C-alpha cells in the first residue's frame, strides 16, 4: 500500500506510478461505486481507471521485487505538519481481524511511530494523532479502506496484519501479460450526502437473499430508529433517513452510526448531521 508523499510537479496518474515503480497492477478504492478498481500498464491511457493520484489516498501496487523510488514535488496544500525525521506513507492492506475498530493509535503502537497524520475530508486539512491521546479522542480515528496515512518517525520494520480482504475486494493476479482483476459483489454500505442537514440516502448491497436489519444508533449506542427489518433479495437497495427518531422527532446534530446486518455479516458507517 502506498501514498504520494509529495505533490508531484506535474499531475500524476495511475499509469505514471506503475511506470515509475515497475508494478504490474495498481488497485484503488472508488467511493462512488463502493468497489475496488484497477489499472495495468497495458490499459489505455484514456481509460477511466487511469485516475489522477491525490493526497490522503492510498493505492495497492503489485511489485515483483522491492524497489526504492524517489519522488520530486512540493508539500501538499493541506499544510501537513512534517516535523519528523522519517516519513512513511501507508494504508491497511487488509481489514484487521482484531482489534475492531482498528484505530490510529493501534497503528502508531504497532509501527512504533511518533505520531500519525491523516487528511480530514470535512475540514480539508491534515490532522494528527499522538500515542499519548486518550483512546476516545476524536483524532483517534478508525482507519478505513482506500485511505492513506502518514507515520512520523516510524523505524524500518515489517508489520504483520491478521485479517481478511476488504468488502467488495477480490483480486486475482497472474504474473503474466494476461493479468486479471475481478470484483466480487459483497456486503457494502454507504450514504450520501454525508454530512447532511435534511436527509441522506443510505445505499447498501447484499450478496444473496437474506434477512436485513438496518438501524441508526447515537454515539452512546442507543437505538435511534429502525429503518429496515425484513427479508430482501440480493443486490443494491436504497432507503432515505430524514434524521428523525422512532417517534418522528428530528434528532439533534452530531454523530450517529448506521448499522447493517445481513445474515452473519454486519457493517457500520458513521453519519454526521449538521445545522
Keywords, please?
275 residues, Immunoglobulin-like, mainly beta, globular, four-stranded antiparallel beta sheet, 18 strands, 2 domains, single chain
Low-pLDDT residue intervals, each spanning 5 or more residues: 78-85, 168-184
- Alpha-beta classification: mainly beta
**Secondary-structure element series:** EHEEEEEEHEEEEEEEEEEE
The gross shape turns out to be globular
What is the strand and helix layout of this fold?
Layout: E1 7-8, H1 14-21, E2 25-30, E3 35-39, E4 60-62, E5 73-74, E6 87-90, E7 95-96, H2 104-111, E8 115-120, E9 125-129, E10 149-152, E11 163-164, E12 188-192, E13 200-206, E14 210-218, E15 223-232, E16 235-241, E17 254-262, E18 265-273
Antiparallel strand pairs: 1-5, 2-3, 2-4, 6-10, 7-11, 8-9, 8-10, 12-13, 13-16, 14-15, 14-17, 17-18
Please sum up the structure shown.
With 275 residues, the chain is mainly beta. The protein has helices at residues 14-21, 104-111, and strands at residues 7-8, 25-30, 35-39, 60-62, 73-74, 87-90, 95-96, 115-120, 125-129, 149-152, 163-164, 188-192, 200-206, 210-218, 223-232, 235-241, 254-262, 265-273.
Amino acid at each position: 500500500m502506498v501514498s504520494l508523499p509529495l505533490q508531484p510537479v506535474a499531475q500524476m496518474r495511475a499509469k505514471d506510478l506503475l511506470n515509475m515503480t515497475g508494478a504490474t497492477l495498481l488497485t484503488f478504492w472508488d467511493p462512488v461505486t463502493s468497489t475496488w478498481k484497477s489499472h495495468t500498464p497495458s490499459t489505455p491511457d484514456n481509460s477511466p481507471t487511469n485516475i489522477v493520484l491525490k493526497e490522503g489516498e492510498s493505492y495497492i501496487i503489485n511489485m515483483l521485487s522491492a524497489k526504492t523510488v524517489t519522488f520530486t514535488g512540493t508539500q501538499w496544500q493541506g499544510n501537513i505538519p512534517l516535523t519528523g525525521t522519517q516519513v512513511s506513507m501507508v494504508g491497511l492492506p487488509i481489514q484487521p481481524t482484531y482489534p475492531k475498530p482498528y484505530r490510529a493509535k493501534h497503528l502508531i503502537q504497532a509501527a512504533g511511530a511518533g505520531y500519525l497524520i491523516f487528511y480530514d475530508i470535512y475540514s480539508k486539512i491534515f490532522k494528527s494523532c499522538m500515542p499519548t491521546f486518550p483512546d476516545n479522542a476524536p483524532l483517534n480515528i478508525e482507519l478505513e479502506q482506500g485511505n492513506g496515512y502518514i507515520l512520523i518517525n516510524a523505524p524500518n520494520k515489517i508489520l504483520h496484519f491478521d485479517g481478511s480482504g476488504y468488502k467488495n475486494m477480490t483480486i486475482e493476479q497472474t504474473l503474466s501479460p494476461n493479468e486479471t482483476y475481478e470484483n466480487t459483489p459483497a456486503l457494502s454500505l454507504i450514504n450520501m450526502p454525508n454530512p447532511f442537514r435534511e436527509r441522506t440516502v443510505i445505499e447498501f448491497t447484499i450478496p444473496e437473499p437474506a434477512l436485513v436489519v438496518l438501524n441508526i444508533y447515537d454515539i452512546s449506542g442507543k437505538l435511534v430508529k429502525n429503518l429496515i427489518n425484513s427479508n430482501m433479495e440480493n443486490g443494491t437497495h436504497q432507503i432515505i433517513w430524514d434524521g428523525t427518531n422512532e417517534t418522528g422527532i428530528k434528532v439533534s446534530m452530531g454523530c450517529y452510526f448506521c448499522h447493517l446486518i445481513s445474515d452473519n455479516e454486519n457493517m457500520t458507517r458513521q453519519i454526521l448531521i449538521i445545522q
